[in-house]
Amino acid sequence: MTPAPTTNQPTADPAATDTLAIDLRTAVMRTSRRLRVEATGEAITPGQYTVLAQLNGSGPATLRALAQREHVQAPSMTRIVNALAEQGFVTRSAHPDDGRQVHVDITGAGRTVLEAARNQRTAWLAQRVAGLSEEDRTVLSRAARIMQEMSGK
């Protein structure tokens, strides 16, 4: 009988791995939800924030592309974009290649409100992190790097 190949990786207990996955998913979802709440209010809703972030990061897009990225129906995206346009945070124009489609782009005011929301989220999180022990901050720093690696960023 041939011995099993050895690896430098420890064998993970599936039950422990599942428990850790549940704990991580729950923590990430609760933190994400809280960050969305902290950065919204009178200026923009969480859905509007996400659209502005998409436009800011990826550039102009059609309503259809935005709806697909956000996994919402076209009428919902139209309502979000209409509200953003009314506030002056996005512009709508005819698509350069297909005039039947609407092209949406972020404005300077949209970038300003997006940056303010991001700053508010960062400030909320920084306040929570500041209250942790040095050891916990070190652990979170390592965890953040690991999670970025896991997510492919």
What keyword list fits this structure?
Arc Repressor Mutant, subunit A, 153 residues, 6 helices, disordered N terminus, three-stranded antiparallel beta sheet, mainly alpha
Calculate the mean pLDDT score and round it: 87
Examine the coordinates and then state which fold CATH places here, giving the name of the CATH topology: Arc Repressor Mutant, subunit A
Terminus-to-terminus distance: 43 Å
Q: What is the count of distinct domains?
A: 1
Shape: elongated
CATH architecture: Orthogonal Bundle
- Taking strands numbered 1, 2, ... along the chain, how are they ordered across the largest sheet? 1-3-2
CATH class: Mainly Alpha
**Given the structure, what is the number of helices?**
6
Q: What are the secondary-structure elements, in order, as H or E?
A: HHEHHEEHH
What is the gyration radius calculated from CA atoms? Answer: 21 Å
Structural class: mainly alpha
For CATH, the homologous superfamily is named as Winged helix-like DNA-binding domain superfamily/Winged helix DNA-binding domain
The helicity comes to 55-70%
Query: Would you report the number of β strands?
Result: 3
- Low-confidence parts: 1-7
Percent of residues in beta strands: 5-15%
Q: Please describe the biggest sheet, giving its number of strands, its sense, and whether it closes into a barrel.
A: 3 strands, antiparallel
Describe it.
With 153 residues, the chain is mainly alpha-helical. The protein has a single domain (34-150), classed as Orthogonal Bundle (Arc Repressor Mutant, subunit A), CATH 1.10.10. 65% of the residues lie in helices and 8% in strands. It contains six helices and three strands. α2 crosses α5 (108-130) and α3 (63-70) crosses α4. The relative contact order is 0.10.
